[in-house]
Prior knowledge:
Elements: H1 4-14, H2 31-39, H3 46-65, H4 69-77
Amino acid sequence: xxxxxTQLSLSRxxxxxxAPQVPRYPDSGISPKIKATIDALPRLTSREREHYFxxxxxxxxxxxxxxxxxxxxxxxxxxxxxxxxxxx
Length: 88
């Protein structure tokens, strides 16, 4: 005879749960805040302007590609997202 408790536990193990869906794009409420934050960056010196344009470009790239934070972090952790050191 088969043990009904064993069959029940095996049937639970076989069920696969779908991975939770992680949104790829920021919701409409945060997009204006991101834009306002970037627009508020100082641009008085050439270094500040360079920083502003770099951040604006990166955020645009991440949004267009729909990259998750975990994907960006993975690129950075594996040395594929590097920023050259600046000489003062």
